[in-house]
Amino acid sequence: MKADTRRLVVHAPMIVLSLLAVFPVWWMVVTSLKPENEIFSTRLWPASPSLENYAYVLDAIPMIRILWNTFAMAAATALAQVLTGLCAAYALTRWRFRGSGIAQGLIALSWLVPFQLTMIPNYVLATKLGMLNTIAGLVIPNAAAAFAVLVLTNAMRSFPKDLIDAARMDGAGHLRVLCEVVVPNLRAPLASLGVLAFISAWNEYFWPLLLTRRIEDTVVQIGLQMFMTQEGNQWGAMMAAATLASLPILLLYLVLHRQIIDSFMRSGIR
Amino acid sequence: MFRRQFMTTALAATMLTAPAAMAEMAAKITEPVTITFYSYNLASAGLGKDTTEGLIADFMAENPMVKVEAVAAPSNEILSRVQADIVAGQQPDVAQLVFRDLIYAAKDLGAQPLEDLAGDELKAHSEGMVPNGLALGRVDDKTYGLAYTFSTPVMFINADLFRAAGLDPDQPPRTWAEVKAAGIAIHEATGKHGFFPGAFGPIDGTFVYQSLVMSNGGQVREGNKLTYADPAAAEAVTMLRDLRDSGAYADIDVAAHMDTFASGDLAMFLFTSAIQSRMVKAADGNFELRVVAMPSFGDKPTAPTNSGSALFVLSQDPVKQRAAWELTKFLTSKHAYTQITSKIGYLPLRLDIVDDPKYLKDWVEANPMIRPNLEQLTRLTPNVAFPGPNYRQVESMMKDAAAEAVLGTGDPVEVLKAAQERGQALMPADG
Amino acid sequence: MVQTLDATFALPARAPSRRVLWQPWVYLAPTLATLVVWIYWPLIEAAYLSFFQWNMLPTATPRYVGVENYANLLTLPEMGRAVRNTVLYILGLLPLSVVLPTAIAILTQDLSGPFRSLYRSLIFIPMIIAPIVAAVLWRWLLNEDHGLVNAGIEVLGLTPVGFLKDPSIALWTLVWITGWKLIGFATLLLSAANGTIDPGYVEAARMDGASRWQVIRDIRLPLLSPTILLLTMMTILFGAQWSFVYINALTGGGPLQSTTNVFYLMWDYGFQSYSAGWSATAGMLTFAGFGVIAMLCLRLMKRFAVHEG
C-alpha cells in the first residue's frame, strides 16, 4: 500500500507532464489530417482523415528544398558554434594572460544584446557582403555564441590538467592537444551543445525572414509563415507544414534520444 | 554600418539623388533590364501568390527586355524590407505597400510622383479607373501610389444563426441600431456571438475603424491636427462601446476573429472582403454565408474606406523607371484586374470590366457576393495615413486608444482625448 | 557553469595576469571577430545613433536630438505597464522553469529503468518544437469557441475561459506557453545535477536520523543551489525575451495592452517604426537594464551559492 502510494506520487506528475508535453504535438498531427470543413471540429481523430493538406503544402511551396536549406543552415551553424566555442574555451582555460578578463567579459556580455538591435545593421552589412539569399548569410553572423563558449569553458575547467601537460611534454602542439586529448574527452558536452545549437538554428525565425527573399532559398520557419496571412490562417495547411517542419528534428530525436538525453546528463551543463 | 552610412548620406544627398530626381524616365527600353518587385501577395501560399506569379510571367512575356525579380515579404514586414534595402544600397523598383505608409513612401522613401514621371501616359492609363480609387494614392495632389489590391469592409452574415434566433436573413441589419437588436437577439437565443468588427487587435483593422469614424462624419486627422477624439469621430466609438455593453458585441479573442466566424460561432462580422473566398470555403457544408454592405449610422450614407495596397515606383534610374512604370501599368490593366478580382478576391479598380464579357461579366454573375462591395466602391473614401517621422507611433496610439475605449472600462471619450493629446505631440508642427 | 558566468560577468577575482601572450588570441579570434562584427559594432553604432532622429535613409539627414529619444521612450505611459508586465512574466515563469522542475527532479530521483528514460524523452519534446509552431498550436488549443481545452472545460460543466481574450488571464497564458517549452529542459538539468550528488551525504544524514524532508532541505537543495540559481538567473535575464515570440505571434501586446512587455513595447515603438533613433534607444535601454540586472544577480549568487565540497 505504502509502496503503491509512493509509486503513484512518482509516476502521476511525470505522466501528467509527459502528456502536456506530447499532446499539443499530437494535436498538430491530427489537425493536419483534417479536411478544410472539418478543421474546427474537436474530434480527437478526423472523421475522414486525408493527406490533402500535405499535398497542398508540397504543391504550394518547395518544401523538400526548404527542408534541405534548413538542414544545411542548422548543421553549419551548430558546427561553427562548437568549433569557435572550443577554441575560445581552450584559450580561456589553458592560459593565464593579460586581457583574458576583457575577452571573457565581451563574450558573456554579448549574450545580453537584444537581437532586435542588431538585426537591421546586420542586414545592411550582409547585403553589402553579398550574403542575401545565401546559407552563408544565415550562418556567419551566428557562427559564435556566448552560450557555447561558457558551456565549454566550464567543461574544460574540470578537465584534468595533467592530461594536457602530459601531452604537451610529449611535444604535442596546442592544436593537436585540442584535437587529440581534449575533444575525445569532452564528447558529451560537445554533443549536447551541438544538438542544442542545431535545434535553435533550426527554429530561427527573425533573421532568415529578413535575409531570404526567394521562397527557394528560405528555411522552414518562414515556409510556415506562408500559410499565415492577414487574410487569415490556412490552419490545415499550416499544421501540415508545421508537422513537416518538426518531423526531421523529431525523427532525429526519436533515433538519438537516448544519446541526447545521456549526453545532457553527463554534459556538465549545470 | 551607421557611421559608414553617414558618409554615403552626405554623398548621396549632394551628388546622387538630386540629379536622379531630375532625370527623365526613358522613353523606351532598348536593352535588357532587371527590376525588383516587392509584393506581400507572394509571401503567402495560395491564390494570391499564384495569381501574382502568373501576372509577372505574363508581363515578362509581353516585355521580353524586362526581367522582374520578385521579392516576397509579409504585409506587416514589407515596408521595413523596402527601407532596409534602400539603406543597404539595393534600390527597390516597384513596391506594393499598404496605405498607412502612403505619406512616408511619398516623402521619405522617394516614391516617384506619377504625374511628374509619366504625365500624359498616366492620364491615358487612368481612363476607366474609379476616380475614388485613384484618389487613394494621392498626397498633396500628386499620385504617388497607384491603387492596386484593395477592398472595403463588408458584413459577413451567418444566415443559420439568424434563423436560429427567429430573424430573417433576407432582412439583414442596415443600421447600427438594427445590428444591436439583432446581435442581442442572436446572443440570447443561441448563446453564440452577435456582432464583431475586425477593427482592433494584432490583425490590422484600422480601415474598419476609419470607415466607422468617417461614416459618422468624423475624421481621424485634419492636416496636422488629430481629431479622432472630436465628437463625430468619438461617437462612432461610443456606439461600439454601447454594442459591447449591451451584449450584442462578441466577447472573443481579437486575434482570432476570422476563425470564430469561420467556425460558425459568430453571426455578423465586419471585415475586409478580401477574406471572402476563405469564408466561402469554411462555410461550405457548415452554414449559409451571406455578404451585405456595411451598416450605417441612421440615414447617413456610409463612407467605406479601403484596406489593401498601392504600387509605388521607387526606381531612380531612368531606364528602370520606364520598366517599373510599364510593370505598374500592366498590374493595373484590365487583364490584371480580371485576374486579381476573380482569383484573389480584391476589388477591380476598373468598373468598366465588370459588365464586359471579355473580362469579368461571367465571373460576377457567378459570384454575386461581390456586388455589395462593388456598390460600396462609389462611396469609397480614402484611408487616412499619418504624416511625419513618428507616424507609426501616432497610429499605434490611436489604435490602442480606440480598442481601450470600446473594450475597456474607462470613459471612452476621455480615453480617446488623452491619447489624442499625447499623439499630437508626435505629429509634425504646422508650417 | 555558475562559476563560468561568475568569472565572466564579474571579471576574475584573482590578480590579473601580466603575461602578454599572443597564442590565446589566435584561439579567441574566431569568436571575438564574430561577436565584434555582428554584435558589438552594431551596438556601438546604436549607442551613437540613439542621440539622433533619423530613419536611416540615404536621402535624409540625421538630426541631433540629445537625450530626447530616451526621454520620449521612458515617459511613454505604456512604459510603466510594460515594465510591470515584464516583472510578472519573470515571476510567472520561475515556478515553471525552476520550482516545478526542482520538485520533479527530486521526486523522481529513485525512478529507474525504462520509465525514467521514457519520461525524460517525452518531456524534452517541447524543447525541440519551434516557438512559432508552439504559438500556433496553443492558440489553436486555447480558443474559446473551437479550442480543445475549452471543449474539455465545458464537458466538465465549467464556463469556458478566454485564455487569450481576457486581459486578466492572457499574460498568464503566454507565461504558460513560454514555460511549456522550458519545463522539460530545466527538469533534465536539475535531474542531472541531482544525480551527481554524492550518495554518501544522503546516507550519512539518514544514519543521523534525518527525515526525507530534512534530507531534501539540508542536503539536496543546498547542493542543487548552483543549478537552481543558474536557472533562476537565466529566467530573469531571458524570460521576457523568450516570451517575445509569443506576444508577437499571438496577442500583439493585447488585449488592452495586458500582455505587452519591454521587449514588445520596444519592438512596437522602436523597431517597427523605421526610426533608427527610437529603435537604437530602445535597444540601448534594454541592454543597459538587463546588464545591470545581470550584475546584481551575480553579486547575489556569489553570496548565496553553496558549492559542493
TrEMBL record, chain A:
One of its GO terms (biological process) is transmembrane transport. It is found in: Cell membrane. CDD domains: TM_PBP2 (cd06261). Pfam families: BPD_transp_1 (PF00528). Keywords: Cell membrane, Membrane, Transmembrane, Transmembrane helix, Transport. SUPFAM superfamilies: MetI-like. The keyword Transmembrane applies. Its main location: membrane. Signal peptide: none annotated. It is a multi-pass membrane protein. The keyword Electron transport does not apply. The chain crosses the membrane at residues 12-30, 66-93, 105-125, 131-156, 177-202, 235-256. One of its GO terms (cellular component) is plasma membrane. Residues 67-256 form the ABC transmembrane type-1 domain. Belongs to the binding-protein-dependent transport system permease family. PANTHER family: ABC TRANSPORTER PERMEASE PROTEIN MG189-RELATED, ABC TRANSPORTER PERMEASE PROTEIN MG189-RELATED-RELATED. This is ABC transporter permease.
UniProtKB/TrEMBL annotation, chain B:
SUPFAM superfamilies: Periplasmic binding protein-like II. It is found in: Periplasm. It holds the Pfam family SBP_bac_8. Its main location: periplasm. Belongs to the bacterial solute-binding protein 1 family. The keyword Transferase does not apply. This is ABC transporter substrate-binding protein. Keywords: Signal. Residues 1-23 form the signal peptide. One of its GO terms (cellular component) is periplasmic space. InterPro entries: Bact_solute-bd_prot1, SBP. CDD domains: PBP2_UgpB (cd14748).
UniProtKB/TrEMBL annotation, chain C:
Keywords: Cell membrane, Membrane, Transmembrane, Transmembrane helix, Transport. GO terms for biological process: transmembrane transport. GO terms for cellular component: plasma membrane. It is found in: Cell membrane. SUPFAM superfamilies: MetI-like. Its main location: membrane. It is a multi-pass membrane protein. Residues 83-297 form the ABC transmembrane type-1 domain. The chain crosses the membrane at residues 20-41, 86-107, 119-141, 169-190, 221-244, 276-298. The keyword ATP-binding does not apply. Belongs to the binding-protein-dependent transport system permease family. This is ABC transporter permease. It comes from Primorskyibacter flagellatus.
